[in-house]
């Protein structure tokens, strides 16, 4: 089965990447999932919000997005980042400015809220805080 996930200009592209990551788990069943845009270049609602989950932190470091920032990542990627002199934190996520990193297969939930409007973040915190 071929699946195309379409991201429109001005929408939250993280939703597209998260959906692609989940649906790509069906590769063994013959699924081919791709993300595409409605135009050759898609502008995020957040303009330049950059989030990395697990080994994507290696790409951010190679592209100099992390610079002197510490990162959160998975246990497999951790020694590789440390080998390039990056500080890896012992926490599930880290964000500063428009850069967010998270580690673990289901860590996208920690990256997704970064850059959201304060009302959205406050709402999420109000929902989960009774259980913390």
Give the strand content. 15-25%
Number of separate structural domains: 2
Give the neighbour order of strands across the main sheet. Answer: 3-5-4
Order of helices and strands: EHEEHHEEHH
- The end-to-end span amounts to 41 Å
Description:
The chain is globular. The model has no long low-confidence stretch (mean pLDDT about 80). The protein is an alpha/beta fold. The protein folds into 2 domains: about 1-40, no CATH class; about 50-130, Rossmann fold (3-Layer(aba) Sandwich). It is built from 5 helices and 5 strands. The chain has a 3-stranded mixed β-sheet with strand order 3-5-4. Strands 1-2 form a two-stranded parallel ribbon. Helix 1 (about 15-25) links the parallel strand 1 and strand 2 (about 30-35).
